[in-house]
Design a protein that fits this description.
Layout (H helix, E strand, L loop, with lengths): L1 E4 L18 E4 L10 H8 L1 H8 L3 E7 L6 H5 L8 H15 L4 E13 L2 E4 L7 E6 L5 E4 L4 E2 L3 H13 L3 E2 L7 E2 L2 E12 L8 E10 L6 H4 L3 H25 L15 H5 L1 H5 L2 E7 L8 H14 L7
Parallel strand pairs: 3-12, 3-13
Antiparallel strand pairs: 1-2, 4-5, 4-8, 4-11, 5-6, 6-7, 9-10, 11-12
Helix pairs in contact: 2-4, 4-5
Subcellular location: Cell projection, Cilium; Cytoplasm, Cytoskeleton
Function: Plus end-directed microtubule-dependent motor protein that regulates the length of motile cilia by mediating depolymerization of microtubules at ciliary tips.
Protein name: Kinesin-like protein
């Protein structure tokens, strides 16, 4: 459960700096090394959330980290090594089939990206930019997004692969197919009991799976012009997310913290997942390369803060 981050520029014989070491140790719920398989990562991070979604809780999974550290691989995976999206939906459909005798269920999903602070529908890219609105119950809706109903994980895989091809990807110095946007897969499970009861109750559980864009330093990705602007937008929304995480993790402290969810579309969309009725997992990715020491350090600090959030379910 421990990550020890060594400073690559450190010289063990340097007496003057012996106590100024930048070596840091972090403790997390789970730590995986380079030998971990997709299955292992899925089972120990996400599998336990699926039962909650079926009983009407919300769940969110984030993939966070610097450009090129493997976020899209963890979430989407490849054909022979599917990632968390597919494994989670597979388990979800299996668990729903088990309750099919007494429950009627529908599963609808939408897949969108947030690029330069505008929302695009990845399943229907021709629909242009979409608006975030709030419905009377106070939950955030996206006006005009395509919702697909399906109970087959294979269909979903094809949809996601198709959607991912629509995603804004541009080469940077750090990564040939760098995702320049945050992708959000939103799965809504609605269940109604088959027995005719007086007060008909519905269970609604939402599962958000978020593949964030890489947090990046322009020096590392050597961005210029348009790429640089994108990078600024990416970092702005990640900063807004970081600010919300900071404020939430300090809640209950000496001063009442205001959590600014409206700073970016990303945090507004995920408002419930961060502070409200939701179980949230953040999977932070770091690269073992000594050149990305700073990125790794910032990522670990970010994830470590997220660990201190207490949500009231």
């Amino acid at each position: 459960q421990r990550v020890v981050l060594m400073d690559p520029s450190e010289d063990p014989g340097d007496i003057l700096r012996a106590n100024r070491s930048r070596e840091k140790a972090f403790v997390f719920d789970m730590v995986f090394d380079h030998r971990a398989t997709q299955e292992e990562v899925y089972v120990s991070t996400t599998k336990s959330l699926i039962g909650g979604v079926i009983s009407g809780y919300n769940a969110t999974i984030f993939a966070y980290g610097p450009t090129g550290a493997g976020k899209t691989y963890t979430m989407l995976g490849t054909d022979c090594e599917p990632g968390i999206y597919i494994r989670a939906l597979d388990d979800l459909f299996k668990a729903l089939e088990a309750t099919a005798e007494e429950m009627d269920y529908t599963v609808s999903m939408s897949y969108l990206e947030i690029y330069n602070e505008v929302i695009r529908d990845l399943l229907n890219p021709s629909s242009g930019f979409l608006d975030l609105r709030e419905d009377p119950r106070g939950s955030i809706q996206i006006a005009g997004i395509t919702e697909v109903s399906t109970t087959n994980a294979q269909e979903v895989m094809q949809l996601l692969m198709k959607g991912n091809k629509q995603r804004t990807q541009e080469p940077t110095a750090a990564n040939k197919t760098s995702s320049r946007s945050h992708a959000v897969l939103q799965v809504t499970v609605t269940q109604k009991s088959r027995r005719k009861v007086m007060g008909e109750e519905m269970l609604i559980g939402k599962l958000f799976m978020v593949d964030l864009a890489g947090s990046e330093r322009a020096a590392q990705t050597q961005n210029r012009g348009k790429r640089m602007k994108e990078g600024a937008h990416i970092n702005r929304s990640l900063l807004a997310l970081g600010n919300c995480i900071n404020a939430l993790s300090e809640k209950g402290g000496s001063r009442a913290q205001f959590v600014n969810f409206r700073d970016s579309k990303l945090t507004r969309l995920l408002k419930d997942s961060l502070g409200g009725n939701s179980r949230t997992v953040m999977i932070a990715h770091i690269s073992p390369a000594s050149t990305s020491f700073e990125e790794s350090r910032m990522t670990l600090i970010y994830a470590y803060r997220a660990k201190n959030i207490k949500t009231q379910v």
